[in-house]
Inverse folding.
């Protein structure tokens, strides 16, 4: 019965939990929600933007304001993804 409960809580199939257990991995967290997946995609886009800003900064362009705005967006997304009980 515990396997069924863990499957429901985590969203993983029973077979995926068994395979993970056989590999010595404990399944502790549920799969990301649709909203969380979208937030992860946004983080990837923001990271790409930051990388592009770094490239521009290396060639002498002033990107400080854009970088700060992007970092603020990253911080907001991260705070929404992290558990609030920490």
């Amino acid at each position: 019965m515990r396997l069924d409960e863990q499957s429901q809580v985590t969203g993983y199939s029973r077979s995926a939990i068994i395979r993970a257990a056989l590999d010595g991995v404990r399944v502790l967290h549920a799969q990301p929600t649709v909203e969380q997946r979208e937030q992860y995609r946004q983080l990837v886009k923001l990271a790409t933007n930051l990388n592009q800003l770094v490239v521009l900064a290396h060639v002498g362009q002033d990107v400080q304001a854009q970088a700060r705005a992007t970092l603020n967006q990253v911080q907001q997304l991260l705070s929404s993804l992290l558990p609030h009980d920490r």
The longest helix spans residues 34-58. The mean pLDDT is 86.
